[in-house]
């Protein structure tokens, strides 16, 4: 499969864009920059994980092995390991540099969300509630010595894959079943053993992974399913998006809602712009209604909101269907969006973006 790149300019949006048209054959589910920002990882309903050079959109490689929709991915801070969760009920650990699958964990139901801890030593994952199985949150320890596993080769389901035989890695370090509304998204906080979750009911909560108890919750964080959760660099606050047509910034310690950004369309993703006071949100009308809706009415745009003033400051068009996922470059120089249309669009900000005065003449010191 060849990847055709279309380079476009849009002075009104003050950016230039790499449009990756044939990187995926089905809709995107999540995209993620690595810590340096030179690599962009994407996953999709086509069972494939791709990695791209973020500066020009060239595909570096693929990670193949899943047999279902890949719902979620995350990469560690050193760009050594990648984890992925899929509808084939598997959590996989990959070597970023050569694309090898190092380990496979299998579960009764699909893996909907994965995330590394800030020290890269642990991975948290959510498996969905289905077919009589409870939804579960599991935390696994990783062996980061060598290639990440004590690797032995064995035959599994008639295919040869590298498997970690260390007993402590076969079972989760911690596992618990959240009571009530199903968890949809999760992330480690800056406090050891505390995991942040978003739920179908719109609730956000903090869980102690050792005891499995809910330490704190905000039942009315949103009025509908929480679709995305992204932390600030220091993890002291986070942004969520929801089908209730809002994105909100919350305090990690208290879960108090700090800011609300209200739109006219269900939101699938929200991201924080480093070094600038902006929140990026994306979503759109459901796919089944897209064929009867114009691009403008469908709201298939990335929308920029002032993080402090709660005012919309700009929009960027491009996708032909709902935006499913947004990620911002760690240095704040670009952002990427993945859509229901199967396209990944990488937008590089022009100089005017950085020269703008979002606070007027007021100078904010970091």
TrEMBL record:
Family statement drawn from the similarity comment of this UniProt entry: Belongs to the eIF-3 subunit I family. Belongs to the WD repeat STRAP family.
This protein's record includes keyword Cytoplasm: yes
Keywords: Cytoplasm, Initiation factor, Protein biosynthesis, Repeat, WD repeat
Chain positions of WD repeats: 21-62, 63-104, 219-260, 316-346
First and last residue of the signal peptide: none
Record carries keyword Protein biosynthesis: yes
Record's function text: Component of the eukaryotic translation initiation factor 3 (eIF-3) complex, which is involved in protein synthesis of a specialized repertoire of mRNAs and, together with other initiation factors, stimulates binding of mRNA and methionyl-tRNAi to the 40S ribosome. The eIF-3 complex specifically targets and initiates translation of a subset of mRNAs involved in cell proliferation.
Organism: Rhizopogon vesiculosus
Cellular localization per UniProt: Cytoplasm
SMART domains: WD40
GO cellular component: eukaryotic 43S preinitiation complex; eukaryotic 48S preinitiation complex; eukaryotic translation initiation factor 3 complex, eIF3m
Protein name: Eukaryotic translation initiation factor 3 subunit I
Single GO MF annotation: translation initiation factor activity
Subunit and interaction comment: Component of the eukaryotic translation initiation factor 3 (eIF-3) complex.
Example GO BP: formation of cytoplasmic translation initiation complex
Entry-linked PROSITE patterns: WD_REPEATS_1, WD_REPEATS_2, WD_REPEATS_REGION
